[in-house]
Amino acid sequence: MKIKSRIIRGIEGDLIVSSVDGKTINVIIRKGSTLDDLADLGDIESDLDIHFALIDDVASATRLIADAFVKAQSGDLVIVLCPDSKARKAAIAALGLKNRLEH
Questions:
Q1: Alpha-helix residue ranges (DSSP H) falling in 1-103
Q2: Cα distance between the two ends of the chain
Q3: Ranges of each domain in the chain
Q4: How far apart are CA 79 and CA 30, in angstroms?
Q5: Per-residue pLDDT tens listing for the chain (103 residues)
Q6: CA–CA distance, 99 with 63 (Å, rounded to integer)
Q7: Using CA atoms, how far apart are residues 57 and 15, in angstroms rounded to an integer?
């Protein structure tokens, strides 16, 4: 599964738009390891589904994100939770954005 992504800059953070297997999936990366860590996102309104990927094993980041992408439909949102900077870097690399997302 090859993932191609681009970053859309927003006022409150970045939205990553990824293309894989003919689907376009919206991605948000946030620091955290539990659903409670998503409180800073506030209310997310979506007519489509929201999926989660917790990068709790850096070596498995690509598989963990791919698992969420397989379940997602085009237009769905995948929130990637990263407990630390190593997990964040692994998630960014898995999305094909290595060295392009700095914060």
A1: 61-71, 85-94
A2: 26
A3: 4-94
A4: 7
A5: 677 777 776 545 568 888 888 889 999 888 888 878 777 666 666 667 889 999 999 999 999 999 999 999 999 999 999 999 999 999 999 998 876 555 4
A6: 20
A7: 23
Residue 36, pLDDT score: 80
Q: Give phi and psi for 62, each to the nearest 5.
A: -60, -45
Tokens coding 100: 């392009």
Task: Give helix 85-94 / helix 61-71 axis angle, nearest 10°.
Answer: 60
pTM of the predicted model as reported, rounded to 2 decimal places:
0.82
Residue with tokens 């964040």: 88
Residue 22's SS3 state is: coil
Both tokens of 96, joined, read 């094909």
The phi and psi torsions of 46 (rounded to 5 degrees) equal -155, 135
Select from 31, 36, 49 the least CA-distant residue to 91: 31
Bridge-based pairing of strands 23-31 and 50-54 is: unpaired
For 72, which DSSP code?
A: P
